[in-house]
């Protein structure tokens, strides 16, 4: 049973990792991530037995499996909302928007600080209270959750824990966006007019080629500067570009396949015009 749960979790993590590299548009990527997490949650729900056969496996499920899967749905749904609602052109308005989102998350953590510290601190003494469906604690529903939770699949604590895990990652995302804003010139209002529709790996391949050939600032621009500029210009979150470049280097057939396609396409167009 435990191995089945962990396999669902592993499959979700793999699917989300592929989505992060495959879909360059932020809104489309976050919508796809939320959908993947929702499907994984449905599979997990179908796998939950009426009786676990022991408290250890039940605690493990409601402490480590179910909260994480649900947290991915909350996380990607929150990112979708943030990117859909954010001010697109005025930098100060965007900064204020991000600050407000961070403040909202901070207030939530202050309310549920005890559970967060218990989980992150690796404590186990209250596991039976927090992570067993039949505990008195999990059958006293706070306002807002009474009648909402499917108590066979989700408990009060596992739901709150999922929110904490998700919002912790959302806060890191927001802080990263704020750091990007502070690194930009004051007079730069970035409102993307174009979007990259090939894969992020293709763009990483192109950027590395341009950097090697000194195409920016007479060769003085650093890779990090180029990627940050493109993130703001094309509304793309590259994530770990070094991981993408490693994948490019490990290609067995043709290393610079995107550059080859660009060259072939250009030569074909030139021939057609002759």
UniProtKB/TrEMBL annotation:
Q: Which residues form a coiled coil?
A: 2-29
Q: Which UniProt keywords apply?
A: Coiled coil
Q: Which Pfam families match?
A: RteC
Name-wise, this protein is: RteC domain-containing protein
Originating species: Chitinophaga chungangae
